[in-house]
């Protein structure tokens, strides 16, 4: 049984005939196909001929964490925190929720950062630097701490309280700065201090080549639980999760372990929607103005070519959902005992707003990406003391529809 990484190199998404060695990780996308006006990401290639037929069942490999899927991941040089293995919860009518809030820092970003921080460890970097005001920064800080590395997080001045608390707990150096300064400072910190950048450095998002590989494990876990879903609906910002899940199912199909690649539906805030815009125009990437939305975690002005590839390969669709639809989905999930961040409800919102004339064959999975604790308004809901007399309590309960 192979338990080590079968990764062989980095391959350009701009031109699959262009490849690079696995080391060092290229953090600015493909240098040969990218330009000042377009950025093409890289992906990791593997020796697929050495993947055994029991890859999904994983006999002889760890049963939890990303280590279970080590053959089709970059080398996992950083210690894990038990990321992955999140539950798939049925909510009725053939719909399942893949609840990524169960990860160590309560978001899907833990799968990505196990891989990116592993790259930092493997090349001997003294720390990592990340531009993020949300889940990515909190997760990077946790995995850096676990690996014994320093972490610098360039966040926004409007950093949500829960995220600020996360970062402080992990000992990260947090520098709230205006958005325009975050990426240039990320690059300067990487150059001067040797810190490894684990977030984006390019105009049209390329991110870290190792990162989306961690997201493939979502597809592996879904396949292990229900084998052949008909569709997967995903909250979508820059499209790294979308691409990772598409690649994961594509790999399993290539290996003959699933019968099809499910249709993937990207679900972006209607206040922006750069991926939907790019697909409408037949472009690899585009930039849009972002209006007001509470879904701050996925409110992106640009898309990555990764998302275009994922929707095309899976014959899926790019959807946009407004805040009202996300609030309804968030409430529906809460009614099932699942409290998620508003951005994380975008996948279910996309499913619920899908036209009736677009049927889906087979089970549907909606991925929820993070905990409700990450929302910007957490802590604002204050409760006034209640008169404890039985007459008052009984009246309050009856007003809420509770009857004896």
TrEMBL record:
Domain of life: Bacteria
Protein name: Threonine synthase
Keyword field: Lyase, Pyridoxal phosphate
Domain Tryptophan synthase beta chain-like PALP as annotated: residue spans: 82-368
UniProt xrefs under SUPFAM superfamilies: Tryptophan synthase beta subunit-like PLP-dependent enzymes
PANTHER family for the chain: L-THREONINE DEHYDRATASE CATABOLIC TDCB (PTHR48078:SF6), THREONINE DEHYDRATASE, MITOCHONDRIAL-RELATED (PTHR48078)
GO MF, one annotated term: threonine deaminase activity
Any single GO BP term: L-threonine catabolic process
Source organism: Streptomyces violaceoruber
Lineage, broadest ranks: Bacteria, Bacillati, Actinomycetota, Actinomycetes, Kitasatosporales
Cofactor requirement: pyridoxal 5'-phosphate
């Amino acid at each position: 049984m192979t338990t080590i990484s079968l990764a062989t190199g980095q391959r350009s998404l701009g031109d699959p005939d262009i490849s690079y060695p696995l080391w060092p990780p290229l953090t600015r996308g493909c240098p040969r196909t990218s330009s000042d006006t377009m950025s093409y990401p890289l992906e990791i290639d593997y020796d697929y001929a050495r993947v055994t037929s029991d890859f999904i069942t994983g006999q002889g490999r760890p049963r939890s964490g990303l280590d279970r899927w080590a053959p089709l991941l970059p080398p996992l040089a950083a210690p894990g925190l038990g990321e992955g293995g999140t539950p798939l919860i049925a909510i009725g009518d053939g719909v399942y929720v893949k609840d990524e809030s169960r990860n160590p820092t309560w978001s899907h970003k833990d799968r990505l950062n196990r891989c990116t921080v592993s790259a930092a460890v493997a090349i001997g970097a003294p720390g990592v630097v990340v531009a993020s005001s949300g889940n990515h920064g909190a997760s990077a800080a946790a995995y850096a701490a676990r690996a014994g590395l320093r972490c610098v997080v360039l966040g926004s001045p409007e950093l949500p309280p829960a995220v600020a608390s996360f970062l402080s707990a992990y000992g990260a150096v947090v520098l709230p700065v205006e958005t325009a300064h975050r990426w240039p400072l990320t690059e300067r910190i990487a150059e001067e201090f040797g810190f490894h950048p684990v977030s984006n450095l390019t105009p049209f998002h390329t991110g870290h080549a190792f990162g989306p590989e961690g997201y493939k494990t979502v597809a592996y876990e879904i396949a292990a639980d229900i084998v052949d879903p008909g569709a997967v609906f995903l909250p979508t910002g820059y499209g790294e999760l979308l691409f990772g899940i598409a690649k994961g199912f594509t790999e399993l199909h290539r290996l003959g372990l699933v019968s099809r690649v499910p249709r993937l539906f990207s679900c972006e805030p209607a206040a922006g929607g750069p991926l939907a815009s790019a697909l409408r125009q037949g472009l690899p990437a585009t930039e849009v103005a972002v209006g007001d939305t509470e879904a701050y975690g996925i409110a992106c002005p640009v898309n990555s070519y990764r998302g275009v590839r994922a929707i095309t390969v899976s014959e899926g669709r790019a959807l946009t959902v407004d805040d009202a639809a996300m609030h309804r989905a968030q409430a529906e999930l809460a009614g099932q005992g699942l409290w998620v961040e508003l951005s994380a409800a975008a996948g279910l919102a996309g499913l619920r707003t899908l036209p009736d004339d677009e049927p889906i064959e087979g089970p549907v999975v909606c991925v929820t990406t993070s905990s409700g604790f990450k929302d910007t308004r957490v802590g604002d809901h204050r409760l006034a003391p209640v008169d404890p007399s039985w007459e008052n309590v009984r009246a309050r309960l009856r007003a809420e529809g509770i009857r004896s």
